Predict the 3D structure of the following.
Amino acid sequence: KIVAHRGYWRTEGSAQNSITSLKKAAEIGCYGSEFDVWITADGVPVVFHDATVNGIRIEDTTYATLMNIRLANGEFIPTLQQYLTEGAKLEGCQLILEIKTHRNDERNKRAADMAVELVKMLGLEQKTEYIAFSKVVCQRLHEITPASKIAYLNGELSPAQVKEMGISGIDYNEKVFVKHPEWLQEAKQLGIEVNVWTVDGEENLRHHATLDGIDIITTNDPEALKGILAEQQAAKQPAAK
Ligand code: MG
């Protein structure tokens, strides 16, 4: 399965974490589109990758100071509510919601609570999957939305340890599986879903596309991966008569 990292943004008119990037990921048939969530000082969840925008720390500023800042494609920084509202209209593209690691655990929990509240309010429980580097965030998510898919990003826990936390998946950097190739089989046996990030470049995509035990590839090149998977699929089919 293909997840577009920060949406499908390496294409005309798009930008990382823009609503356009989400729509474009859905358009090319990605399994999901990933995006990053911070909460502002006044408690507004916004979609943006970095901790700072133009030198302003998102956690320390109000939404009012961010709302007129434009992304590379001219769109404004979306609030999570705006983002999810657009996502709700898209057929067949999962919303892969990353909660960024905030300053302290109180804020981490608040970010998880606010994101889940919005997801529930918009009726998007089935369509949303969560990812986070923070164990506290993953545990909180598991508490408040136990039926949701939740994957841990930080890479130091084995599939068994993740399973013990009640988390449904691991979403690890590609280097982790070079160090721990045995985790792929371990995860499979335990029913832990495996996502690998951020896999880019033709050769690397090909390598991961054939690696046994990988369920999902998160990439900045979703179109390239789509081509590779289609090719592999075609090669598996018996030759046409
Ligand atoms: Mg992310």
